[in-house]
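Local shape tokens:
==================
===
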Amino acid sequence: MNVAYLSALSALAGSAIGALATFSTTWLTQRYQGEMQRRVQESGRREKLFGEFIDQASVLPADALTHSLEDPSKLVPIYAVMGKLRLFANASTTGAADTAMRHIVQIYYSPNADFQDQASVQAGHFDFLLDFTKCSRAELRDLP
């Protein structure tokens, strides 16, 4: 084989390897960036959804302490958020949300609170979102 052919083939092989390395690096970088962007969007969606549930679940108990459930449509927004949670959240988070919802409905069917009596205020369980917030934080932290 001629030395000129050998050097030409070596140059072509080097160029091909360089092009393949550049292509592979670009492909891997794009794939990684796309995956990271998807994770950030997923985390943002869940964070917004968890916040929406907390907002809804914080307003309803105040109403439930002073009113009975004459208008069931008051619960429609939180049930809508609950449906979204079932789509996107894991089982422990939705279970904690279900428990919080049951607690809210239970407050509606209990006698109205008398805020003049300190014993009735202290007897209430007002930190019913604690389990939900712990599960939500854990889910956001462990998001793949």
Observations:
- The chain has a mean pLDDT of 85.
- Residues 44-141 form one domain.
- The CA atoms of residues 1 and 63 lie 92 Å apart.
